[in-house]
Write a structure and sequence with these properties.
- The chain is an alpha+beta fold and about 600 residues long.
- Helix 8 packs across helix 10 and helix 12 crosses helix 13.
Length: about 600
């Protein structure tokens, strides 16, 4: 179903209009009755045959209650912007109109009320002003209705106009991630805790477990109602009352969230795209502000992010909150001065978990990704500025359904914007830069292991362990026992001087080689072991070490014996290479382990 909400200047007849449309008086508080003004949000409904129940929300028009206005308007599908004929477009009319745009309300009807107080000429003047105000906004083609809530003139026509606009709305999304911002909490005697709010993005069901935020507690739905009718399940975009078990009334308040599953990110630092209400009034850096999201309000400091964005209509800001609250990427917000008396502007949350140390320098590289703040753009931006994100994180951080997000991921991969490795999604630029950093470390060090590569490159260890496979697969690396070498680094010329000296000394030692257990210098032992891993030295038996050239020469002399015979003895091999028995057996065993010969009793045969 759908939600219709009023908006407009104080005393322009919003509450009386709803009373004329529905027969319900939305001013329920004694103070509202006494002052004849709406202070808090009120609720009513219209029954349309063959269409169903349409929820109506009445919001206060006075500037002092703008916080309550946003709390009522955040979930509206169709707005009625009410303008009194005798006053015309006023200050709060403009403020409310801007709020509707900031919240992304899909459709709008301008209702000129109190036409009984003027004539046709006055009505045409106001209509002309309205058309001019709407002309360069998303509501340029909005309908304009003329009514008198007092006499009933035009009310029947307005009802039909509302229905016609509702039929043109996009279908309320059911992403199977339902959520509801609480706007009222009460506890009727013998019933328990009841909360009300506007249900969005899915359905709740009887006896279903849901999560409460910021409590982060799982509770159960005992009963569901809408406009005093008991339901088996809620409907997306519907005024809903939930009877909850497992939580008391005093643990909840307006602004808390009911959701299933939890796709919100708890944070006290967000990056947002901000649109000032008045371009002429400059927003100062470090301004203390109040941020309104859903029915929630949070206070914090607005910090202008220097990203060289020249657009004065919209630019990135950081908002550092006094306490943690809950947000999601792409979420609309309205920003006011503390106390909610004056609207400063609004916009969209982009990174709900903004980290200045990690994100500040890189966000300006990717600002061009954000144009309409669609789920695809928000996902692209999140992956780009983080460099990489786990697939599960991408799927669970947005209100969009899993299938829709998986489709976006697939499209981004096909376009070459992202690279997927297992459960990790990399931004193409980050993947390339990280790989290059790792290659530089490997080229600059001789045979570093993954931890050394990670420490020196600054690429996290778990990322290194994924990317190293790509580098090896591209045959730009050689891996030996957990250590990695670039192909061009494995040459004698590229060895450090200390290793060159050792290699030269062992080459001079010829068939005597060296014995590891006789080396007293631990550093030299490590150098020798590195040279074995690099294949410059050959270990015969774990202790006797030959230069690779010496070993190859002796191996070829032994194998040459098979040119004139089918099998050879140890003495024959000993004479061929001129080695003592101490060395000949380890040599023959090594040639055998390399797969060239095989022992058969007292003989060796060629494989």
């Amino acid at each position: 179903m759908y939600i219709v909400g009023t908006s407009g200047h104080i005393d322009h007849g919003k509450t009386s209009l709803i009373r004329a449309l529905t027969g319900i008086d939305c001013d329920r508080l004694p103070e509202e009755k006494a002052r004849e003004m709406t202070i808090d949000i009120g609720f009513a409904s219209i029954e349309y045959p063959k269409f169903g129940t349409v929820s109506i929300i009445d919001v206060p028009g006075h500037e002092r209650f703008i916080r309550n206005m946003v709390a009522g308007a955040w979930g509206v599908d169709l707005a009625l912007l009410v303008i009194a004929l005798d006053d015309g477009w006023m200050l709060q009319t403009e403020d409310h109109f801007r709020v509707l745009q900031l919240l992304g309300i899909e459709r709008l009807i301008v209702v000129i009320n109190k036409i009984d107080l003027g004539d046709e000429e006055m009505l045409e003047i106001v209509k002309e002003e309205v058309r001019e105000r709407l002309s360069e906004t998303p509501y340029a083609e909005a309908d304009i209705a003329s009514v008198s809530a007092k006499t009933g003139t035009g009310i029947a026509e307005l009802k039909e106009l509302i229905l016609a606009n509702l039929r043109k709305l996009s279908k309320a999304p059911d992403s199977d991630k339902p959520y509801l911002y609480i706007d009222r909490v009460f506890s009727p005697k013998g019933v328990g805790t009841v909360i009300t709010g506007t249900l969005k993005n899915g359905i709740f069901k009887d006896n279903e477990s849901v999560t409460l935020l910021p409590l982060v507690r799982e509770v159960k739905i005992k009963k569901i109602e809408s406009h005093y009718k008991e339901l088996q399940e809620g409907v997306p975009s519907q005024r809903t009352a939930l009877n909850l078990t497992g939580v008391s009334q005093d643990e909840l308040e307006r602004g808390d969230i009911v959701c299933r599953p939890n796709f919100f990110t708890q944070s006290d630092d967000v990056l947002a795209w901000f649109r000032p209400l008045d371009k002429k009034r400059k927003v100062r850096n470090n301004t203390y502000v109040e941020v309104l999201t859903g029915t929630d309000s949070s206070t914090g400091k607005l910090i202008i992010v220097n990203t060289d964005v020249k657009d004065e209509n919209e630019f990135p800001v950081r908002i550092h909150f006094d306490e943690k609250s809950n947000f999601y990427p792409g979420q609309p917000f309205v920003l006011t001065n503390p106390g909610g008396y004056r609207i400063i502007g609004g916009g969209r949350v982009v990174l709900p978990d903004y980290n200045p140390d990690r994100h500040k320098k890189i966000i300006k590289e990717h600002t061009a990704l954000l144009k309409t703040f669609s789920p695809s753009e928000v996902i692209s931006f999140s992956i780009a500025v983080n460099g990489e994100l786990k697939r599960d994180r991408v799927i669970t951080m947005l209100p969009s359904g899993k299938k829709a997000i998986e489709r976006i991921i697939s499209e981004l991969e096909s376009a070459g914007d992202i690279i997927i490795k297992g459960e990790m999604i990399f931004w193409k630029g980050f993947h390339f830069e990280s790989t290059e950093k790792m290659k530089r470390v490997i080229k600059g060090k001789l045979g570093p292991n993954l931890k050394e590569i990670s420490d020196s490159s600054g690429v996290p260890f778990d990322i290194c362990s994924l990317l190293i496979k790509d580098i090896v697969a591209a045959e730009t690396l050689v891996e030996k026992e957990g250590r990695y070498f670039t192909a061009d680094s494995i040459t004698p010329e590229n060895l450090p001087d200390s290793k060159k000296r050792i290699l030269a000394d062992i080459l001079k030692s010829g068939g005597e080689g060296i014995e590891l257990d006789k080396l007293k210098d631990d550093i030299m032992k490590k150098e020798v072991k590195d040279l074995i891993k690099l294949d410059f030295l050959v270990s015969l038996d774990g202790n006797i070490i030959y230069h690779r050239d010496i070993y190859t020469d002796m191996k070829m002399k032994v194998l040459a014996l098979f040119d004139t015979r089918d099998k050879i003895t140890v003495p024959e091999a000993k004479d061929a290479v001129e080695l003592s028995r101490k060395y000949i057996l380890p040599l023959l065993n090594r040639i055998e382990s390399d797969g060239f010969i095989k022992r058969l009793g007292d003989f060796r045969i060629k494989v």
